[in-house]
């Protein structure tokens, strides 16, 4: 048996401003660091054998806060396959201003749908098509060998991966979200089959999402 631990990065200034980040490399705030330290305590009972983050600074910084909080000492790999969704022409734009421009219905399709096209960007399906093969080819082998794996990444990266892990439909994934510094823990058997799940942290902001 092994643990798969997913931790979403801490708050950034762009998150706070309601701006889509995508591949833009934004750092986490002091508040983001504090919340990651708090979230890290929820997994202090789990030995971490190997860690993965995206190539983006916000996930690397969040991982370092976990390291400092828990005293981790394990290999860590930074992978482009785990990067946040690229929002194309909407990168850097305020999402609430975009909602006014597009209307609520079109905005929700853009923001949450599985395969709604984004000019010069990615759909969630595109993210799924890079995250899931990486999970199958790399992370699953670690889990099958009994290694406990920590992933630190972004919201849409985890929406895509959790869609696969929990077999969530294309329609239902539009309703799924996880907060900043969220911590999801899965139990995985030696065949790579998930047989348990805990949400140890999901909403440090008590319902307020940026």
Automatic annotation (TrEMBL):
Could you give a single Gene Ontology term from the biological process aspect?
A: glycolytic process
Coiled-coil boundaries: none
Q: Which CDD domains match?
A: HP_PGM_like
Say if the entry is tagged with keyword Isomerase: yes
Q: Could you tell me the keywords of this UniProt record?
A: Glycolysis, Isomerase
**Does the record's keyword annotation contain Isomerase?**
yes
Per UniProt, where does substrate bind? Answer: 8-15, 58, 84-87, 95, 111-112, 155-156
Q: Which domain of life is it from?
A: Bacteria
In terms of SMART domains, this protein maps to: PGAM
- Catalytic residues identified in the record: 9 (tele-phosphohistidine intermediate), 84 (proton donor/acceptor)
User: One of this protein's Pfam families, by short name?
Assistant: His_Phos_1
For molecular function, the Gene Ontology terms on record are: phosphoglycerate mutase activity
EC numbers for this chain: 5.4.2.11
Family, according to the entry, reads as follows:
Belongs to the phosphoglycerate mutase family. BPG-dependent PGAM subfamily.
Q: What is this protein called?
A: phosphoglycerate mutase (2,3-diphosphoglycerate-dependent)
- Species, as recorded: Candidatus Daviesbacteria bacterium RIFCSPHIGHO2_02_FULL_43_12
């Amino acid at each position: 048996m092994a643990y798969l631990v997913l931790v979403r990065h801490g708050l950034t200034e762009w998150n706070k401003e309601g701006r889509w980040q995508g591949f833009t490399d934004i750092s986490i705030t002091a508040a983001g660091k504090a919340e990651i330290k708090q979230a890290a305590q929820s997994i202090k009972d789990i030995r971490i054998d190997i860690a993965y983050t995206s190539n983006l600074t916000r996930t690397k910084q969040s991982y370092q806060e976990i390291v400092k909080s828990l005293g981790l000492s394990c290999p860590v790999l930074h992978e482009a396959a785990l990067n946040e969704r690229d929002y194309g022409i909407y990168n850097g734009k305020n999402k609430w201003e975009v909602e006014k421009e597009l209307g609520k219905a079109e905005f929700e399709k853009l923001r949450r749908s599985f395969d709604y096209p984004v000019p010069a960007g990615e759909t969630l399906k595109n993210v799924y098509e890079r995250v899931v093969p990486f999970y199958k080819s790399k992370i699953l082998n670690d889990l099958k060998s009994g290694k406990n794996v920590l992933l630190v990444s972004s919201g849409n990266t985890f929406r895509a991966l959790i869609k696969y892990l929990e077999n969530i439909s294309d329609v239902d994934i539009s309703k799924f979200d996880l907060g900043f510094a969220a911590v999801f823990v899965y139990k995985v058997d030696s065949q790579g089959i998930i047989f348990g799940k805990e949400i140890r942290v999901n909403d440090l902001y008590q319902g307020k999402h940026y």
